[in-house]
Amino acid sequence: MTEPTTETQLETELDGLEVDAPLVGIVMGSKSDMPVMEKAAKELDARGIRNEIRVMSAHRDPDLVAEYSKNARMRGLKVIIAGAGLAAALPGVVAAHTDLPVIGVPLTSSMTVAGGLDALLSIAQMPPGVPVATVGVDNPKNAAALAARILSL
Q1: CA 23/CA 137 separation, integer angstroms
Q2: Residue 31 carries which DSSP code?
Q3: SS in 3 state form for 37-71?
Q4: Residue 86 and residue 109 in contact, taking contact as beta carbons nearer than 8 Å
Q5: DSSP assigned state of 29
Q6: pLDDT of 29 above 60
Q7: Would you say 57 is a known binding-site residue?
Q8: Residue 6 pLDDT exceeds 90
């Protein structure tokens, strides 16, 4: 009788397979964030880095965010870029459910305070053990550049 395969063994086996899975996940809390966050995808595409884009709210879809984050490594992702405005909970919630690097992009909206300062501070001030790298307000191109550097290590 053979031993059951563990998740770690499965991940090790999958690491060796050549697949066209995305390496970077790009998530945002609202469809209205798409025009800004698509800039990260365009930058990654220009660098030849496979990526995927998803819309999921930390407030309206917390279970979906948790599931996506927990399964990200198994699906082949290496970095997650998370854009959010206002309370900007998405990057921190993603980071709480994965051990992958998470890059937060603070976003502005019509309800933004002080030009996105609310989102910037929300993303930068994570609790101990829940790291999120933070780029400038409305700057997903820098998030993509940082993801590219992380992948080159």
Answers
A1: 23
A2: G
A3: HHHHHHHHHHCCCCEEEEECCCCCCHHHHHHHHHH
A4: yes
A5: S
A6: yes
A7: no
A8: no
The pTM assigned to this predicted structure is: 0.87
Share of the chain above pLDDT 70, in %: 87
**Burial of 143 per CB tally in 10 Å (0-12, 13-18, 19+):** buried
Is 33 a known ligand-binding residue?
Answer: yes
Residue 73, annotated ligand binder? no
**What are the structure tokens assigned to 115, written together?**
């030009």
CB pairs under 8 A, 24+ apart, for 49-53? 49/23, 49/24, 49/144, 49/147, 49/148, 49/151, 50/20, 50/21, 50/22, 50/23, 50/24, 51/22, 51/23, 51/24, 51/25, 51/26, 52/22, 52/24, 52/25, 52/26, 53/26, 53/27, 53/28
Is 142 exposed, middle or buried (CB count within 10 Å of its CB: 0-12, 13-18, 19+)?
Answer: middle
